[in-house]
Description:
The protein is an alpha/beta fold.
Amino acid sequence: MGGTVAETIRRENGxxxxxxxxxxxxxxxxxxxEFLEGDEEKAxxxxxxxxxxxxxxxxxxxxxxxxxxxxxxxxxxCEHTAPIDYGLVVIDFQARKIHSMxxxxxxxxxxxxxxxxxxxxxxxxxxxxxxxxxxEDWAFFANRSLEPLGSLSEAFxxxxxxxxxxxxxxxxxxxxxxxxxxxxxxxxxxxxKGGFELLRYEETPKGALSMAKALSAEGFSFREDEIQMWVxxxxxxxxxxxxxxxxxxxxRRALGESPEPAASGKSNLRKGNP
Length: 274
């Protein structure tokens, strides 16, 4: 089903963009024509634009609750580098790293089913992009040691009509689903350009602490309300937010702040999100 995930992007120039998006939305950025053609800044801008529209809608209409966009209430409130709902994904274009603490999907990849649906789309733009990806080997199979999509390119040879190309692709995808050995099913592809190191963290106090330390080491900074969100979400059961002691203090230090808690001991975490 999916849901909401906090997402932070650090552009190559150091600018930080914070947003909430639907789980997996970042993967469509990596498979956009702009990203695959090397215009990462335009790909980021297009990805962020959808959130920014909802953010402005939220700021303008939060008191009345009469929003212009249907999903503003779900996404527009959040500009935090802190886990919400499904978790947190940080995409660092400076260090070429993706930090992921969420259990929904694998960043920087797309399921072969989604890719097939993209190719078979009635939208000419999506279909043309998928065909270009295949013909020019813009993508790789994730669990074939990044083997190029040469077999897909070969399948297109001599297929003059779009209908025949779709038919051949469907046959190819069906073969991948049924012929792969157990545990090695070829079910994801990754874009061939702009490779990122993927760092995954368990959604546990230990995993959260590891991610917090990694982000701090990369130069990310955190507001007080963000720190409180980290602490409150992953504080071990039975432990109180005590001044200068325990896991909460470790987390505050990892995020670069004093281990003293905020005076209220509570964050401004939006009601309804864990």
